Amino acid sequence: MTERRLLLLDATGILVRCERAARRATPMHAAVDGAERPTGALLMFIRSVARYLREDHPTHVLAAWDGERATAGRRELHPGYKSSRPQPPGEDSWLYQAAMEFVREAWFYPFRREGLEADDIIAWACQAVPLSADLSAVIRSDDHDLFQLLRPGRVIQRSLNSLSERTRASDVVKRYGCQPVWLPALWALAGDKADDIPGIPGVGNSKALKLLEEADWRFDDVRHPWLESEERGWDMIGAYREILDLAHWEPGRRERHWLSHEMWTEMVNDRRWDPAAALRRVRPLLEKWGMTGTLSDLESGKLWPLDLDS
Question: What is the pTM of this model?
Answer without folding.
Answer: 0.91
